[in-house]
Design brief:
The protein is an all-alpha fold and 496 residues long. The protein folds into 2 domains: 222 residues; 268 residues, no CATH class. Helix content is 88%, strand content 0%. Helix 1 crosses helix 12. The radius of gyration is 23 Å and the shape is globular. 42% of the residues are buried.
Length: 496
């Protein structure tokens, strides 16, 4: 029982750590946007946004997804192979990223006139894109450092590198905007990338890695071909998702107008950024741990069960609170004008309970390196999502979009459950389903109460359900993690 308790504690600690990192990073991003808006105005914001968006697109097209696929290979080598093999895998990544980084920078430089025309409708920013190609190189090098830290499961160093990289990038670029205004945009982008690279390099180099035999270019590509193959698959999957989201926005724009697109995007940001940060926090630790034991079905079952169990208990209070007080949160995050988004968010966020489980199971496919299955499911799922979004919006508007998201997450959960079972013999432990069903019931009750017309009865009922969901989650987590015991241990350490 003690090893299992330690395993659950690890999941909770890692999620808490990187959840905090996500929150801090979001806050830094908000502060950056606010300061930039004050110093360079809407025009400067527009220029900076177009330059950064183009930079990110070229990066996504040229980095071969190594920052994600390398995590799998490094963590697998760490758990299953010799130290030499682990170091060799790290060296392969470090060498490959120089090829992708320099190749991406060269491509951006050569296509800078075209990029300027596409982004701004003229060639005035050709030299800006040439200079920004330097930022692309350092961006890819920094991401490879983060991939190494994640793959080796150096969680505290990874958290510090993420936070300090964002913070120092902000601090070093504010003077450029202050003194040079719009002219400081390009230098700020470059310096932020360089600063982030040096911060991540500092933490990556604290890991003692012995020198290995020198890698030739032929050896690098030969040994890194699986890393490249999976990376390309992950990149293509990301591009497919972007195309799907774009197609939905175009349909909404043509059918309901630009305002409706704004309401839709506001809802998506809440679902993916504010609520979705829980998934991002979990994935940072979960993916390398799962990759390390992927050849052992029993260990995979244990890790996925632990992750799905904690995910449901962490998501439950968040979902209930957002369902109960969606109008308040939307007004707080945006304004009263965005009230049409409420029903979209209320329905969509219910689906997060199913996403928490399919998210946990779906990583098995990536950890297995099953590229064909992954890309096939990505294409099919995105086609289904677009079709359901179009149908939902056609019949019931924004609320229909929320309903389509909710139904899609159920379909996705069932499909991933069947797929991982048939391909890999995976099954979730029966203990999980009791918690899952109880969580769904509480979410369903909260959602039903939002339709009560009497305001007093509605909010009293919702407050009770929120309280029950928090107590339920804490009680179940305490059974697995020993929260009270953990707090007592921490307090005793502080007294000493």
């Amino acid at each position: 029982m003690e090893p299992q308790k330690n395993a659950f504690r690890h999941v909770v600690k890692a999620t808490s750590l990187f959840g905090g990192v996500q929150v801090i990073t979001i806050l830094i991003s908000i502060v950056r946007s606010k300061i930039i808006a004050l110093l360079i105005g809407p025009t400067g914001m527009g220029i900076a946004s177009l330059l950064n968006t183009t930079l990110n697109l070229v990066d996504a097209a040229t980095n071969l997804g190594l920052n994600r696929s390398a995590v799998k290979d490094i963590s697998y080598a760490k758990n299953n192979d010799s130290t030499d093999k682990t170091i060799r895998t790290v060296r392969v990544l470090q060498r490959l990223v120089w090829f992708t980084g320099l190749g991406g920078a060269l491509l951006m430089g050569l296509t800078s006139p075209l990029l300027s025309e596409l982004a701004f409708g003229n060639s005035d920013y050709t030299f800006a894109f040439i200079w920004i190609s330097i930022a692309l190189l350092f961006k890819q090098l920094a991401n490879s450092n983060l991939a190494i830290l994640q793959g080796l499961q150096k969680l505290r160093s990874l958290a510090k590198a993420n936070v300090l990289g964002s913070l120092f990038g902000l601090v070093t670029t504010i003077p450029l905007y202050y003194f040079f205004g719009i002219e400081g945009i390009v230098p700020a982008i470059i310096i932020a990338a360089i600063v982030t690279f040096f911060v991540t390099s500092f933490f990556q180099r604290k890991i003692e890695l012995r020198k290995t035999d020198r890698l030739t270019n032929k050896q690098t590509f030969s040994e890194g071909k699986e890393m490249i193959r999976l990376g390309i698959t992950l990149s293509v999957s990301g591009i497919i998702s972007l195309i799907a989201a774009y197609a939905v926005q175009i349909y909404i724009s043509n059918t309901g107008g630009v305002d409706e697109v704004g309401f839709y995007n506001a809802g998506v940001v809440i679902l993916n950024t504010y609520v979705g940060l829980v998934f991002n926090a979990m994935a940072t630790d979960y993916f390398p741990r799962l990759s390390g034991v992927i050849d052992s079905l029993e260990k995979v079952k244990d890790i996925v069960f632990e992750q799905a169990f904690v995910a449901i208990l962490l998501m439950l209070p968040i979902v209930v609170i957002f369902v109960a007080f969606a109008p308040f949160f939307i007004t707080l995050l945006y304004s009263q004008e965005f009230s049409p988004t409420v029903q979209f968010v209320a329905w969509g966020i219910l689906g997060m309970m199913f996403k928490a489980v399919s998210f946990s199971m779906g990583y098995i496919i990536i950890a297995k390196g099953d590229s064909k299955v992954f890309i096939t499911t990505a294409i099919v799922f995105n086609i289904v999502l677009v079709a359901m979004n179009v149908a939902g919006y056609s019949y019931w508007g924004l609320e229909g979009l929320g309903i389509s998201y909710f139904l899609y997450f159920i379909i996705h959960f069932v499909a991933i459950w069947m797929l991982t079972n048939s391909l890999y013999g995976f099954r979730l432990k029966s203990e999980f389903y009791a918690i899952f069903i109880a969580g769904l019931l509480l979410c369903g009750i909260a959602f039903s109460l939002t339709f009560v017309e009497n305001v007093l009865y509605r909010y009293v009922g919702l407050s009770i359900v929120v309280l029950i969901s928090i107590i339920f989650s804490l009680y179940q987590l305490d059974k697995k993690v020993g929260i009270r015991e953990l707090i007592q241990t921490i307090l005793k350490r502080k007294k000493k």
